[in-house]
Design a protein that fits this description.
Layout: E1 6-10, H1 14-26, E2 30-34, H2 37-46, E3 51-55, H3 63-73, E4 78-83, H4 88-96, E5 101-104, H5 109-175, E6 180-184, E7 187-191, H6 194-211, H7 216-233
Parallel strand pairs: 1-2, 1-3, 3-4, 4-5
Antiparallel strand pairs: 6-7
Helix pairs in contact: 2-3, 5-6, 5-7, 6-7
Length: about 230
């Protein structure tokens, strides 16, 4: 047994704490003891234990209340309840509250060892699932950031390419004669003169800007380019 597996043993009777504590230690666990549920809860809150072994009937806070508090603080912790002989009502309540197991007094050594082994395995499995889930969440978040960045770059590239195409068509329209066909982003107009070219490009630039905020700066460049060209063309 891995000695790193810590067990919190809770019983108000010193003799039982001593006997069970020595037995659990012989099984290979790191044992800590508490004489009351409140003392155990304080120790657990300060440093949660993978496994808690507690008696049910104790003065003040009983084992059932401790079980509920422990499970609320750390659902992965495995709690083994020690019940009085024939106390089946409490045994059923233990299972309802999430106890890993219950053992009737007098405690059988083999049953206790088996119960602790199963509790340790269950805790280890839960820890592995939790770590795997956290890793998956981190992986999903990382991939999402990469996809968003790729989409942003694609949008910028598409916007720049469309603007470049618009400018190219505009330049050809201003330099040529007669009617020229201007195409950009699915818009097709017949260029009659520079004024029409300027109007159509500005309208197109405004449409792109409304779809892609990242096109704002590029749109301003197109506007300035149009004004500069049309100043000498009209």
């Amino acid at each position: 047994m891995d000695t790193s597996v810590r067990v919190l043993l809770v019983d108000d009777e010193p003799g039982i704490r001593h006997v069970l504590g020595a037995l659990i230690k012989d099984f290979g666990y790191d044992v800590h003891t508490a004489e009351s549920a409140r003392e155990a809860l304080e120790a657990f809150t300060a440093n949660p234990f993978p496994i808690v072994v507690t008696d049910i009937r104790m003065p003040g806070m009983d084992g059932l209340a401790l079980l509920e508090r422990v499970r609320n603080q750390n659902p992965d912790t495995q709690v083994v309840m020690i019940t009085g002989h024939g106390d089946m009502d409490n045994a059923v309540e233990c299972l309802r509250l999430g106890a890993a197991d219950f053992i009737a007094k007098p405690v059988n050594d083999d049953l206790l060892e088996h119960s602790l082994k199963r509790a340790a395995e269950q805790y280890s499995l839960r820890e592995q699932i939790r770590r795997h889930t956290e890793h998956l969440e981190e992986l999903v978040a990382s991939r999402t950031r990469e996809l968003l960045e790729a989409h942003r770059v694609a949008v910028v590239g598409e916007t720049v390419a469309c603007m470049a195409h618009t400018i190219k068509n505009l330049a050809a329209a201003l330099e040529g004669s007669g009617e020229t066909c201007l195409r950009a982003h699915g818009v097709e107009v017949v260029v009659v003169n520079a004024a029409v070219v300027e109007e159509q490009v500005l309208l197109e630039a405004e449409r792109i800007e409304s779809v892609h905020d990242l096109a704002f700066g590029t749109t301003r460049i197109v506007e300035r380019f149009v004004r500069r060209l049309t100043a000498g063309a009209v």
